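Margin note from the TA: students keep mixing up input and output lines. Inputs are the sequences; the output is the structure of the whole complex. Example:
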Amino acid sequence: MMVSERIVGTVPRRSPREAAETVAPDATLGVSGFGSVGYPKEIPLALAESGRDLSLTVVSGGSVGDEIDTALVEADAVERRHPFQARSAIREAINDGTVAFHDRHISALGDEVAHGGLADVDVAVIEAVAVGEDWLIPSTSIGHTPAYVEAADRLFVELNHAQPLGLQRLHDVYRRRAPPDREPIPLSRPDERIGSPQVEFDTEKLAGVVLTDRPDTPYSFRTPGETERAISANLAEFLAAELDRNPILAESVQFQFGVGSIGNAMIDTLDAVDFGDRTVHYLGEVFQDGLLDLLDEGQIASASATSLALSEDGQDRLFADLERYASDVVVRPASVSNSPEIIDRFGVIGVNSALSVDVYGHANSTHVDGAQVVNGIGGSGDFTRNCPLSIIALPSTTSGGTSRVVPMVTHVDHTEHDVDIVVTEHGLADLRGLSPRERADRMIAECADPDVRPDLRAYRDRAAETAGNIPHHLPSVFDWRSDHPDQQ
Amino acid sequence: MMVSERIVGTVPRRSPREAAETVAPDATLGVSGFGSVGYPKEIPLALAESGRDLSLTVVSGGSVGDEIDTALVEADAVERRHPFQARSAIREAINDGTVAFHDRHISALGDEVAHGGLADVDVAVIEAVAVGEDWLIPSTSIGHTPAYVEAADRLFVELNHAQPLGLQRLHDVYRRRAPPDREPIPLSRPDERIGSPQVEFDTEKLAGVVLTDRPDTPYSFRTPGETERAISANLAEFLAAELDRNPILAESVQFQFGVGSIGNAMIDTLDAVDFGDRTVHYLGEVFQDGLLDLLDEGQIASASATSLALSEDGQDRLFADLERYASDVVVRPASVSNSPEIIDRFGVIGVNSALSVDVYGHANSTHVDGAQVVNGIGGSGDFTRNCPLSIIALPSTTSGGTSRVVPMVTHVDHTEHDVDIVVTEHGLADLRGLSPRERADRMIAECADPDVRPDLRAYRDRAAETAGNIPHHLPSVFDWRSDHPDQQ
């Protein structure tokens, strides 16, 4: 049911400060927000400015904006944070050990909060474009809002007038039953709608509605450079060959691209591939700027995600033409968009980036030097693990020139059992059916920076002196480079 | 449809030698077999004894017996082997690098063979208890037989009179459509049957039927010792508390236990837990000896798996009473038994072992020292990744006294994003919602061998000197023990 008013019926209005004052100092907040959009702003700011001694647990769907992950953190109000973040204040606090962080897959997070023992939500704080006595309509993301609203004892809604009411046309809220009486998700086409625009709740739960017109502080993307364009060209060449080979791609092709500048740049790859008569759908976690062009040009038939993770420019474009985009864009709960069942059912091709990969096909997408977390695994594991074709796309080196192709990654987020393809600006390694030794040869020859290949081959040869399916020389595995201090 | 004859209609009979002679020297064989049972025996032996120069690729569902993984390997006839093995001859050849091995998850393997580019099956060689002109009935396992039969150009059936025809009463063969027109698996109860006992095929594909009465060479299990009993007691205590807490366990509980002696020992845990009025189902990958007692005693209502991975004694017990067990035991394709969709739908509690775990919650289930493969990941990743409650159960040390709890595992099969609980003979660490630092404290205090705790704490303190969500001191991460040669 579409609504034409922001507030329907009688709801308790609260100021941000009134709402914040009712939050216990050690409360667990389940907040909306995913892809840095659609998160609550006023109540977190009021909590940050309260001067109270707070030790909150904050559970979001995905990344949120500065009002939570900067202001609240700088006010020393956050003790625990799940499952993903993308702001420097919270990142530093996690790496300092002052904020406890459990980095979880997105797909199962709603369940983990609802019954899995990850966190027991006291208060849900949800941004909405409209609210009634027992329902709300999410704004620019859905994430795990339905699960958190259900799990919470109390609910605050931030009604945001900066977010257009027309967003309701995009939403498809569907809530599954819990195991063991869980039903299959009844989605039979990538662009099908199976729910409603509204998240429903018990009317007694609604503790207050706060008004705001603060906009999101969304992502900004780097313009793709030469490296990204070269990665994209290598990927396009592979996809063209795979379209010819793979029987499940004969009539339609479904893609997911990871969040961020590389993910956004990889979307352009679809422009370079001749899909013939095939229908192409985007069936991913986040909807990014690059998809707007593809939809406008008719390159893709539909796009679905749990977050409209657009830049400011992208938001302007979408909001100006919501009516038109609504026919082809679906925003779903993360428990649907990232569901292993759905990824498998439609045979999604997953393209995700990583911090580093090793020559045997393991990928690190979260921790520099195995220690310093960047953002978190997000949905990359949901897709890499469940896709029939999982692709890791990354530059061969960091901007500082350090190789991203290494003998052993210092943190494994995606295992050798899950990664099919690795592509860099130098080439592409198809690892399917290869032994670890064969993978290493292929990765060094195709994906590594040419300057690093001699060192990687030297490691491979040193490792080959000891037997093993995956040859390793553990004493030098993390200091394998000829310029490494320990080797000089 | 049940059959009363072993051969129905007119099928081409072949001797093992005749069949073997038609196999090209570099053929890819898709063989039946899972949990060391239900694999073809005569044709592999004939190939091994042929004296021909062979370089075969052999893809099975799971582990197979000596006729394939010993005889064929010792005849130097295997060039490539997927996805799992459990015999010393093949293991040594893989670790020597003479056989190429890609260690894959079980759930998606049928798809990977059918359309994923892992291997292109020329000949399917399948053990059956009965065969017709366009169907066969599998013997003691199903595994990926339906997918391999469908993918193969030609099919040989080994009709095994040592396997009772009554096994047909247990089988429930269901074949899904391929993406993107894949349907949800229509399984609404753990013990439901949705298919038939038969694997169907195009009659032109059937190249020959070979008769045999060679029995399986199945697993044997160690009698649980003091350590296994202590792990089981710690697990039982946790399960009792979780039954009280977790709303999805209020009415029924579904379990999976990993293959092997520890998995079989953990099954006994169910005897020690008071489930009250709850119905308990086993919904796993392999059916092991311990389940026979639980079924006999009515402790579990049903058991389903893709393999009857019983010991010889267990096979005797099952075969003597097939009629009775058929009401509660279902054998399914691995694409159903290990399906992420099914594991999630029924909320299976997964209990799997590992070679080692690290204090941050990563588990190594495949490679000693990151190099030497033992068996492979099998279905442990399917369950650990998709279970709402994933448990790793292992002794705190090897039989030689080396700690299995370490600062960083040398190979990651199950990530920190997937492991909920670790249990050893010393105690249990519930890692849900904990930061890596908190996990390390818990793992050291609860799970590690007391003699090793001082060294693990020394590592933790050394690592804490550098910042990071996951504190690590990479120079000593693999030689962290005070008795390590590099530390002396």
